[in-house]
Amino acid sequence: MVARPGGDAVRPIRTFLAFLGTSFRKNLAYRSEVWLSILFGLLAIVIQAAIWRALLGDGAAEGITVDDMVTYVIITTVISAVSLHRLVSDVDERLRGGDIAVDLVKPMHYPTLQLADQLGRSAFQLAFVVVPMVVIAALTFGIEAPASATAGAAFVASLAIALLVSFTQGLLLALLAFWFLTTFHFIWANGALLTLFGGANLPLWFFPDALETVARLLPYQFVAFVPAAIWLGEIAGSELAWTLALGVMWVAIQGAAGQALWSAAVHRLTVQGG
Fold this sequence. Notes:
This protein has one domain (about 30-270). The radius of gyration is 20 Å and the shape is globular.
């Protein structure tokens, strides 16, 4: 049989898409959870919108109106629904159950396999949770359009960065399970930092100056604050270019660290005969 030109180059992409599709179909088995996910997402939006309406009323703070904050809350809730942080608990569970051995013999680099699996789950969340949740929230509260065409395009780029930052963070934490019996304490610490510096509950522009300066350098901002701020036009111009470049840098740093940790984990398994 004569191989088709470019076949070897295309095969990894086909394999990746096949695993992504398998993950999407696997999540279809949990359709009963969709209504709960939509309900809890809407509840989070209602509560936060009510808080910001009470705080801001008809006025504004730092140039931000209540309509801005309602849109901000909707966007950060959406990003939370599709982020890839669940990777940590998935890997931890499979490692302790011994199912990790099956993953290691699959025809794909393990971190890439996990990315396909998590993206399949996010695609499911987007189709069955995010879309109806956004429609209901928009009809109930209203949602502002992107500040400009540039803001809309940059938002898409920032969303991709948000997914990759959340994935590479999750991968780093997940791989620690190869050395520790549980990663609970690492998950808790990372969750606390994400809550503080991510900006989902309190946008960074309301932080004290010193704390905002620190938060603007960390990767956590990309998982919530940055996409929402870009959508609203609060990050624009040269600051926009710098912020996106910083996000790409953090993806590269965390990705390289994850690859190094994975190589060490494979060596550990090989040495132990696992």
